[in-house]
Structures are given as structure tokens and as C-alpha cells.
């Protein structure tokens, strides 16, 4: 079990959903920004948390939506704590 120690693992909140309006990714970003504001220890050090948004962007409209989400993350000043994974391949 020591091989799978949780001590060295990164803390991650993972959202898996296509980048579509009904998934309301902006609400996820705002909620995450609020979490970091309310709990500053989650913003750095060993307690830091990362939000990963993983999903498909099927067309130009979805890709524009992802860009808008990236802009919102920048506006909320959470870019260092957010990772976007778009159209990840399935092994």
C-alpha cells in the first residue's frame, strides 16, 4: 500500500463533460474561484487544489466556448489552478 501513498498525490477536482452550454462550465469556474477565495490554503503549498476540465469540443462553436472559459479563468485569476484538456484520446 505504501506504493500508492496519497501524500505525493496532487489534489484534483475533475469535471468530465463536453464543452456545451448546458454543462455550465462557467459556474464551475466561478465556484472554484470562490473556493480558493474562501480557503486560501487551497491555492498553494501541499494543500493546493487544481480544477481539470476535460471534455470534447465538437465544432468551432465549442472551441470558441473553450476560449471563453479560458478567458473567464484568467479574469477570475485562477489560471494557474485550472487545466483544460480538450478532445483527449481514449486509450
Verbal overview:
Keywords: Glycosyltransferase, Transferase. This is Glycosyl transferase family 1 domain-containing protein. It holds the Pfam family Glycos_transf_1. It comes from Rhizopogon vesiculosus. There is one protein chain. By secondary structure, the protein is an alpha/beta fold. The protein has one domain (13-86). The protein contains 2 helices and 3 strands; from the N terminus they run E-H-E-H-E. It has a 3-stranded parallel sheet, with helices on one face. The chain is globular and about 40 Å long. 13% of the residues are buried.
Tell me the span between the first and last alpha carbons.
26 Å
Helix content: 25-40%
Question: Number of helical runs?
Answer: 2
Portion in strands: 15-25%
Outline type: globular
Task: Report the sheet with the most strands, covering strand number, pairing sense and barrel closure.
Answer: 3 strands, parallel
* Alpha carbon gyration radius: 14 Å
Structural class: alpha/beta
Low-confidence stretches: none
Please indicate the count of domains. Answer: 1
Strands of the biggest beta sheet: in what spatial order? 1-2-3
Please, what is the average pLDDT? 91
Number of strands: 3
In terms of topology, how is this protein built?
Blueprint: E1 11-16, H1 25-38, E2 49-55, H2 60-75, E3 82-86
Parallel strand pairs: 1-2, 2-3
